[in-house]
Specification:
glucose 1-dehydrogenase [NAD(P)+] activity; EC 1.1.1.47; alpha/beta; 251 residues; Rossmann fold; NAD
Length: 251
């Protein structure tokens, strides 16, 4: 729920913005006054998000990029700065789910694929985002981990490992940049109404609902609310935090 214009004059960068949590967060930043750069694998995938951001009256920059490829990410961040002049908030949300399998049956290629996008991709984005924030003297980074970042998931070792590691990366970066006026936090979504959840459950959403103590799935907008709070002045004394927004799933 919007509470005003907390990001007027600021620039927000959202990865994995084509759908779900990324789209909702990009639109939420736009509604609160930010100029928004949105990133996903193709410009075509971002068309609906770009339209929704423009509908708020905000400026939007559409970027096609593979987050696991440093040269592409570096170029994307450079384009954000060239277009908007700075980078105030980075929401590193790009990620993929694993194919369910016990550890001994996980193909090495599958393991590498999940870690390459979820963990390496988050690190690569942070590397260039933080360098820009140091140059300008301020900034906020929020990374998408998961409730699976603080508990085990049967059949989901590669995904859980990547999301656990994102929390460690977040906490370490928060300490690295605490005196540089840069905050780094992580949001831990639970079972959310997204295309990823549809894929993971094979369309049987009730399986995911049954895992939620509150008896329902979360909405992408509820994750966006948490990200905006962490990114705004209301969260100015919060860094290195891993905040669960999961209906109690990870308890």
């Amino acid at each position: 729920m919007s509470v005003g214009q907390r990001f007027t004059g600021k620039v927000a960068f959202v990865t994995g913005a084509a759908s779900g949590i990324g789209r909702a967060t990009a639109v939420a930043f736009a509604q609160e006054g930010a100029r928004v750069a949105i990133l996903d694998l193709t410009e075509e995938a971002l068309a609906t998000t770009a339209e929704a951001v423009r509908a708020t009256g905000a400026e939007v920059l559409v970027l096609a990029c593979d987050v696991a490829k440093p040269e592409q990410v570096e170029a994307a961040i450079a384009e954000v700065v060239a277009t908007f002049g700075r980078l105030d908030v980075a929401f590193n949300n790009a990620g993929v789910e694993n194919k369910a399998a016990p550890v001994a049956e996980i193909a090495l290629e599958e393991w590498d694929h999940i870690l390459n996008i979820n963990l390496r991709g988050t690190f690569v984005c942070m590397k260039y985002e933080l360098a820009q924030m140091v140059r300008q003297g301020s900034g906020v980074v929020v990374n998408t981990s998961s409730g699976a970042g603080v508990r085990g998931v049967a059949g989901g070792a590669s995904y859980a490992a990547s999301k656990h590691a994102i929390i460690g990366l977040t906490k370490s970066a928060a300490l690295d940049y605490a005196k540089a006026n840069i905050r780094v936090n992580a949001v831990l979504p639970g079972n959310i109404e997204t295309p990823m959840m549809d894929r993971f459950t094979g369309g049987d959403i009730q399986k995911a609902i049954d895992l939620e103590p509150v008896g329902r799935l979360g909405k992408p907008e509820e994750i966006a609310d948490a990200v905006l709070w962490m990114s705004a002045d209301l969260g100015a004394f919060v860094t290195g935090a891993a905040i669960a927004v999961d209906g109690g799933w990870s308890l």
